[in-house]
Each structure stands twice: as structure tokens, then as C-alpha cells.
Amino acid sequence: MTPDLYDTEHSFLEFASSQGFAISEPLKPDGKIHRFRLESDRHGEKSGAYCVWPEGKNYDGKPHGWVQDHHEGGEKRFWQFYSRDNPPPREKPTDEERAAARTRREAEQRQEAELRSEVLKSAWNAYQAARSIEEAPDHPYLPAKHVTPRGGFPFGGQWCAACVSAA
């Protein structure tokens, strides 16, 4: 979600002010370079510059821009609009955060392995308890479907279709 123009302008002007730039003229967030007068400028001089992309430089909906002072070497100070929908990038995790994440991941992997093991044991026990089709030719499924047994095992109360043939 792209923020409205008022929020973008307000956020950029706050950023510029925090960097020591007082932009007194109306802001033009159009993706073009604009010059403005600094407090230290002589009459008619405009040593400050800014550029704001309200839709994002690549139209990604993330407003950003920069501001600079040509008196102090012209170093650009970059700004990006952050909000709940567009949070700032996270810093690298600390060793403690990595260790906690590793411990959490290992616990989840152990839990998944235990669950997988239980499911496999349950399937194996059901397979071991199954009777061959020759031992149960009177199973109600067979006459209901008009089939004769050819060998195989029932699983979950149903006979495998490949293990029976049509009568």
C-alpha cells in the first residue's frame, strides 16, 4: 500500500530537518532534483538539493529520496518512508538470537521426526495385523462388488482394487 502524499512529504521534511536542512519552499515530490536555499547561503544562492520519489524509484510503492548540501562536500543523505506495511530492514541477528533460533528449529525437527516415527509405526502395525485375502474370502466387500480374491491385504477395512478381480 502506497502512503498518501501528505505522509510522504511530512516524513521527508522531518528527515531533512533532523539532518539540519530547513526546506522552506513547497516540496515537489516528483522524482526530479530540486535546489533550495540553505540558511548559510548568500542572496540568490541555492546550495541545497533534494529528490523525492513518492511512488518509489522503481514504482514499487516505497517512497524514498535524498537531500544534500553542496557546501559540505555534497554527500547525499538517503531517506525511505517506513510504516507498518513497509518496516525498516532488520539488523543482523545477534549470536544469542541465532542460538535461540537454532534451538527452536532443532526442537521442531525432533518433534516432526517423532510424529513421523509414530505414523510409520501405526502403518506398520496395521500392515502386520492385516490378514491375507485368502484367509478372509467371505469379507463383505468382495460379494458386494462381485469380485473374487487374488491375494493381497486389506488396509483400513478396504481391499486394494489391484488385489481383486471382477467375477
Walk me through what this model shows:
- The protein has 167 residues and is of the alpha+beta class.
- The chain folds into 2 domains: 5-80, no CATH class; 126-167, no CATH class.
- It has helices at residues 5-18, 95-129, 141-145, and strands at 34-36, 48-53, 64-69, 76-80, 147-149, 154-155, 158-159, 164-166.
- It has a 4-stranded antiparallel sheet, covered by helices on one side. Strands 5-8 form a two-stranded antiparallel ribbon. A two-stranded antiparallel sheet has the order 6-7.
- A hairpin with a 2-residue loop joins strand 6 (154-155) and strand 7 (158-159).
- The longest helix has 35 residues, at 95-129.
- The protein is elongated and about 105 Å long.
- The mean pLDDT is 79.
